[in-house]
Amino acid sequence: MLKNLDPLLGPDLLHILRSMGHGDEVAIVDANYPAQSAAERLVRMDGVSAVQVLQAVLSVLPLDAYVEHPVHSMQVVGDVAAVPEIVTEFRRLVASADANAACGALERFAFYDRVKGAFAVVATGERRLYGNILLTKGVIDPD
Q1: Of 52, 55, 65, 81, which residue has the fewest beta carbons closer than 10 angstroms?
Q2: How many CB atoms lie within 10 A of CB 27?
């Protein structure tokens, strides 16, 4: 155990988050997502919701301030204007972590393609549909 870290941040996930560089992306995906086939690096967190994982990750990961959307969710197929409840929860957590971070949405297959290029994928036990989010790592400015 370490002090001041969310206990969901185990050694594998911490190693991945620390190894990422500016502009690298990490995907947090739901239980239905084809994570194994999409991931170069995969961390499984099957008993945990995507919201819990996102909150833990945002407690240590700076979001990229140099891109328009450092956060992307997946658009609802057939209704691009729809915002699932879980995406609303994601956006609330992002706003709490970084008030300047804008959230975008990608079409389903564009999201899949983007995740295939991500540094890592965290597969959760999230059962709600569209419980997928992609984060772009930022920098921590010098003091």
Answers
A1: 81
A2: 26
130, 74 Cβ separation under 8 angstroms: yes
Cβ atoms 129, 95 nearer than 8 A: no
Domain 17-136 part of CATH 3.40.50.300: no
Look up residue 125 and give its two tokens: 């036990």
CA distance 92 to 31: 21
Active site (catalytic) residues: 22, 64, 112
pLDDT by residue (tens digit) across 87-139? 999 999 999 999 999 999 999 999 999 999 999 999 999 999 999 999 999 99
Domain ranges of the chain: 17-136
- For the full predicted model, state whether its pTM sits above 0.85: yes
Cite the beta strand spans of the chain per DSSP E: 25-29, 42-45, 71-74, 103-106, 120-124, 133-136
Q: Which residues of 71-81 are buried (b: 16+ CB within 10 A; e: fewer)?
A: bbbbbbeeeee
Q: Is 4 exposed, middle or buried (0-12, 13-18, 19+ CB in 10 A)?
A: exposed
